[in-house]
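User: Could you go from structure to sequence for me? I need the amino acid at each position, not a summary. Structure tokens:
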């Protein structure tokens, strides 16, 4: 007879566009799951659909979990749910592993880890990339920073949420790689928006322009994903513009050398945010390009 090791009990905090889909994959993978969300009704609806428990607080969630995953908006929220009043640290036993999948920048990850250390709680910074569709089907790319033994402990959880799961180095390196990647994505989205407007102004057939770029050296993931929504001005959020702006700013704050493409993207994202598109998909960076040119695509 062979024995099997039971799956770790997972606490999941943050059931937004990404978190709800990631947590659903953990539930589908058979992990015993407890959830907490700032909006109780959201947690209750999720639990009803996925055979999960609802905790009354992050501390209560920590008390019944071996591993806690956080997927919230920014460093302040991560710090609040982990170290704030009635936070994870106040309910956890020593040895708990926290996996933060939010994008908060390396400085915040290191600061929060230092706050957790006196409680005997370990932290992996494991931001994700891939947007909502890949969160739904469990094919995210996950870049994890932290101690090798902590990564090994959390590997089964990460594998349930992602297809490419990498241990990229010490704590904070996951965040650094993520914000560089997102800054490149934002810069590419800005380039796509500008190229479409230049092509439109020249009177060329945009179907042909996009087809040639996709087949040639101008191809990019942002061209494939965002050219269509930009052309139709359909900014249904897969990844909110305000969140992309936050990530690019984190990259610029952490960068020790100039990153001119990221700075240009930050300028355009900020303008689009000021125009009221912060809650829309970051394809709405087009709105800033159009306003600068006084021309509609």
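Assistant: Here is the amino acid at each position, in order:
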């Amino acid at each position: 007879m062979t024995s099997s090791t039971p799956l770790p009990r997972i606490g999941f905090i943050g059931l937004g566009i990404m978190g709800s889909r990631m947590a659903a994959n953990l539930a589908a993978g058979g992990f015993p799951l407890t959830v907490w969300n700032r909006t109780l009704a959201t947690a209750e609806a999720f639990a009803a659909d996925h055979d999960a428990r609802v905790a009354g607080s992050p501390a209560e969630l920590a008390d019944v979990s071996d591993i806690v995953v956080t997927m919230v908006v920014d460093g302040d929220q991560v710090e609040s749910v982990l170290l704030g009043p009635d936070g994870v640290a106040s309910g956890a036993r020593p040895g708990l592993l926290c996996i933060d999948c939010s994008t908060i920048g390396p400085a915040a990850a290191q600061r929060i880890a230092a706050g957790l250390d006196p409680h005997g709680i370990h932290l992996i910074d494991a931001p994700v990339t891939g947007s909502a569709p890949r969160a739904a089907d469990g094919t995210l790319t996950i870049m994890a920073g932290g101690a090798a033994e902590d990564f090994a402990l959390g590997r089964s959880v990460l594998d349930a949420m992602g297809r490419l799961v990498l241990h990229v180095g010490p704590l904070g390196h996951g965040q650094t790689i993520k914000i560089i990647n997102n800054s490149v994505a934002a810069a590419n989205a800005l380039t796509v928006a500008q190229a479409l407007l230049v092509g439109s102004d020249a009177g060329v057939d945009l179907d042909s322009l996009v087809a040639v770029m996709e087949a040639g050296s101008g191809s990019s993931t942002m061209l494939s994903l965002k050219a269509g929504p930009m052309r139709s001005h359909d900014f249904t959020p897969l990844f909110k513009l305000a969140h992309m702006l936050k990530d690019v700013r984190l990259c610029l704050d952490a960068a020790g050398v100039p990153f001119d493409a990221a700075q240009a993207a930050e300028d355009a994202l900020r303008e689009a945010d000021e125009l009221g598109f912060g809650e829309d998909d970051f394809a709405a960076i087009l709105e800033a390009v159009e306003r600068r040119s006084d021309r509609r695509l």
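One structural detail worth keeping in mind: Strands lie at 10-13, 33-36, 53-54, 67-70, 97-100, 122-125, 128-129, 140-145, 162-169.
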